[in-house]
């Protein structure tokens, strides 16, 4: 697996920084957000370091193909399949991306409004 020096989420995937694991397979890791903004707030990350949705390339086709199904599986594991949930990929500066390792936020456990930007 390719990781990047100094990347918090690479360190979490490698177990160098502790996290509350929700799901793991060969390619993905899911864990609770340290500062939840909803009763359920889980992050899904590829184990391979990819900076953001904007820098995903054809070399990352496996990630692109499987990430959505992984999110679906994790959301079901969290009991959100029926209730509903929101998936957010903050991408780049104006979207407020603070960790530059691709991640999807799964948010649930509350009634949400939309538009919410
Ligand atoms: P972004 O703003 O980049 O979309 O989201 C980064 C998320 O990572 C934030 O919601 C933040 O709370 C979470 N986060 C940052 N550092 C850590 C950490 O060390 N552990 C965990 N579990 N979450 C983190
Ligand atoms: Zn990383």
UniProtKB/TrEMBL annotation:
GO molecular function, one term: catalytic activity
Ranges of residues in domain HIT: 8-117
Gene3D superfamilies attached to this UniProt entry: HIT-like
A Pfam family this chain is assigned to: HIT
SUPFAM superfamilies: HIT-like
Active site, per annotation: 103
PROSITE patterns (alphabetical): HIT_2 (PS51084)
Alphabetical list of InterPro entries matching this protein: Histidine_triad_HIT, HIT-like, HIT-like_sf
Motif (Histidine triad motif): 101-105
CDD domains referenced in this protein's UniProt entry, alphabetically: PKCI_related (cd01276)
Protein name: Histidine triad domain protein
